[in-house]
Design a protein that fits this description.
Layout lengths: L3 E2 L2 E2 H12 L7 H31 L7 H9 L2 H9 L4 H15 L1
Length: 106
């Protein structure tokens, strides 16, 4: 039978109630571990990108770290560059535009 409860069937609603009570894990343990490792990897990559943005700004003697500094640093991060490419970004063109903008700050 398929009585609907808030957009879910009754078959699904029993699982939903167990999730609400906390007696059913929303994800298998292996998937949670992989997600945790992915988050830690992203956090490490972000920390490196932030550090590189800081170094770039300091080398140029800029008072603040800007979005441009962060984007330039992210272009050197393989994961971030892959995402930007998947979104249709021309990395060389972006790098050139960002370099021009950073010269403007000087």
């Amino acid at each position: 039978w398929s009585i609907s409860r808030g957009g879910t069937s009754t078959r699904c609603s029993a699982r939903w109630r167990r999730l609400e009570r906390g007696t059913l894990s929303p994800q298998p343990a292996a998937r949670r571990i992989r997600a945790k490792e992915a988050i830690e990897m992203i956090a490490q990559e972000l920390e490196v990108s932030l550090h590189m943005a800081f170094v770039e700004a300091r080398q140029k003697q800029h008072e603040f770290i800007t979005v441009e500094h962060l984007l330039l640093a992210m272009l050197d991060n393989p994961s971030a560059a892959e995402v930007l490419k998947a979104c249709g970004v021309d990395l060389d063109e972006l790098r050139g535009v960002l370099a021009e903008r950073n010269e403007w700050y000087e």
